Amino acid sequence: MTKELKGIAASDGIAVAKAYMLVQPDLSFTKKTIDDTDAEVSRFQKAIAASNADLKLIRDKAAASLGEEEAQVFDAHMMILADPEFTGAIESNIKDNSVNAEQALQDVSSMFISTFEAMTDNAYMQERAADVRDVSTRVMSHLLGVQLPNPALIDEEVIVVAHDLTPSDTAQLDKKYVKAFVTDIGGRTAHSAIMARSLEIPAVVGTQDVTTSVKNGQQIAVDGLTGQVVVDPTDEQTAKFTQEAKTYADQKAEWAKLKTSETLTADGKHFDIAANIGTPKDLDGVLDNGAEAIGLYRTEFLYMDSSELPTEDDQFEAYKKVLETMSPKPVVVRTMDIGGDKHLPYMPLPEEMNPFLGYRAIRISLDRQEIFRTQLRALLRASEYGKLRIMFPMIATIQEFEAAKKIFLEEKDKLVADGVKVASDIQLGIMIEIPAAAVLADQFAKHVDFFSIGTNDLIQYTMAADRGNEHVSYLYQPYNPSILRLVKHVIDSAHKEGKWVGMCGEAAGDPIMVPLLLGLGLDEYSMSATSVLKVRSLMKKLSTADMKELAEKAINESISNDENKALVEKAVHNK
Fold first, then answer.
1. CB burial readout 12-43, b (16+ within 10 A) else e
2. Scanning 95, 180, 251, 469, which has its CA 20 to 30 A from the CA of 439?
3. CA angle 157, 158, 159 (to 5 degrees)
4. Is 191 a catalytic residue?
């Protein structure tokens, strides 16, 4: 039966395919007394064999797409399955206590997990607890005859349906097969939505109930332009979605003609349109869309895609590839921004009431300097291969920036003393995402080489509204006069000191925000690669003098986000 859902349009595009439920199944069971324990042991051994087959397939896929080093975590999982101390204890439990395999598995795995977690003086052994937990979950799924979802194993065209997608889940999606995704929760600026735009996968988030409205394999249609989702669409609806997908593809083909064009406004002013990336694999999208720079390289995905802290050499190779590929175009690299909703399984962080306002980003880097210094050394070594700009995230005070800069200079001096070539023109800047830094931009501008405004966090902190909470998504208001005044103050403060300002938050690619930003004098616009050509096309139609007048009205005469949206639509989009 056809059902229509409405969510938040998070990534442009339209798709129709069957649903792949990326939802953890129910693995509950009842303890039973077993008469034929030999048969129960045999059932357990079959579950072990099936789990091994799974892991070999996942390992091979991971090695092909991510590399041998990334795949080693699955070798560790297979070693657990082959460990007679682990499997033998479970078999003994079945025989000695006449219990079903599910109960025996839970008893033994819980004991192993507790033992490893108690080894507080040995981080490596503590991490093995997570491996045992993962392996036990897989074996349990086979005992219960329940399939575990794994986005890395998708090998046919599907639309992924999930309660939410973590950044690591999203990173595993292969756009050859994953045609779109839909979630219960989240907003347009959630990290999964941002990555969907980088991967050019249509997405609708915040539907509230898609996981309870769809069954695995059911046909669904997704419109990432409007936020519409249709479950079991009729033939007529499917034809309509297919036609709209063709219209959108034709529009993209028109934009593609601007790939090699310079970004110029109607009155001949040049602005830089850059792209945001998460990994070197995103470079193809950057080049295909004709971006003039990398305005944000989110290096935390190097850490999140690894089973341990990436080495200096691992990071050097990644940074070198991006810088070499983009040279002589500039690349802004953001240092590790872990915390909030981005976690590392091998680096436990303290439980916090509000992690977005807690121990994260530069706060971790300044506290755990060995991690920070390793990253800076890798960046410094890579700097000779392109035009590097380094940006520190979550800066709240000038003292934090000076502390980070001091560590950078110390590592630079060490490398130079060792005879390592290091570029002499590396710029150091900060993300303006904390209101305190935005308000004090006139003082920060005397210390930094550039600003990059991170509107995703700046808006959520200014409006006191969690960007991933669909219940307060209406408060994501980039055109609100309070936000525009902060942005204007940051731009004016930088220009007064002869510094440049970029924007790497999602607002930089918003067709309503772009005219206002032109009027405010923003220098660089960095966005998901898929938005680059659309924004270049829009800028060709805009006069900076007209946009300056428009921006002044938005800041001084308007009192709401909606008024300013209507103002831009009337002046620009409804001509």
1. bbbbbbbbbbbeeeeeeeeeeebeebeebbeb
2. 469
3. 145
4. yes
C-alpha dihedral, 192 to 172 to 388 to 339, nearest 10°: 50
In contact, 264 and 258? CB cutoff 8 Å: no
Segment 20-61, tens digit of pLDDT: 998 888 899 999 999 999 999 999 999 999 999 988 887 887
Q: Which of the residues 142, 191, 270, 495 is marked catalytic?
A: 191
Give the CB-side neighbour count of residue 440, counting CA atoms within 13 A. Answer: 17
- Tell me how crowded residue 572 is: count the other CB atoms within 10 A of its CB: 19
Give the mean pLDDT of 396-422: 98
CB 472 within 8 A of CB 465: yes
d(CA 190, CA 513): 19
Task: Report yes or no: 396 and 441 within 8 Å, Cβ to Cβ.
Answer: no
Enumerate residues 6+ apart whose C-beta is below 8 A from 345. Answer: 127, 130, 307
Identify the structural domains of the chain with CATH numbers, from first to last. Answer: 3-23+151-253 (3.50.30.10), 37-144 (1.10.274.10), 257-573 (3.20.20.60)
Report d(CA 192, CA 181) in Å as an integer. Answer: 10
What b-and-e string marks burial along 169-204, b requiring 16 or more CB atoms within 10 Å of the CB? bbbbbeeebbbbbbbbbbbbbbbbbbbbbbbbbbbb
Find the distance separating the first CA and the last CA of the chain, reported in whole Å.
41
Q: Count of CB atoms within 10 A of residue 475's CB?
A: 18
Tell me the pLDDT tens digit for each residue of 68-111.
765 777 888 899 999 999 999 999 999 999 999 999 999 999 99
pTM: 0.73
**CB-based contacts of 4, cutoff 8 Å, min separation 6:** 228, 229, 230, 231
Cα(449)–Cα(427) distance, rounded to whole angstroms? 6
Q: How far, in Å, CA of 297 to CA of 293, rounded? A: 11
**Residues ≥6 apart with Cβ < 8 Å to 357:** 461
Contact 242, 16 (CB under 8 A): yes
The pLDDT score that the predictor gives to residue 340 is 79
> CA-CA distance, 262 to 355, in Å (whole number)?
41
In whole angstroms, give the CA distance from residue 498 to residue 132. Answer: 56
Q: What is the SS3 assignment for 67? A: coil
Residues whose CB is less than 8 angstroms from the CB of residue 561 and which lie 6 or more positions away in sequence, other chains included: 477, 478, 479, 480
Phi, psi of 253 (to 5 degrees): -65, -35
Strands 3-6 and 8-11 come out as: unpaired
CA distance 40 to 94: 7
537, 255 Cβ separation under 8 angstroms: yes
The residue from 163, 270, 471, 504 that is catalytic is 504
- Amino acid letter at 379? L
Task: Identify each DSSP E strand in 422-509 by its residue range.
Answer: 427-432, 450-453, 500-503
- Look up 489 and say whether it is catalytic: no
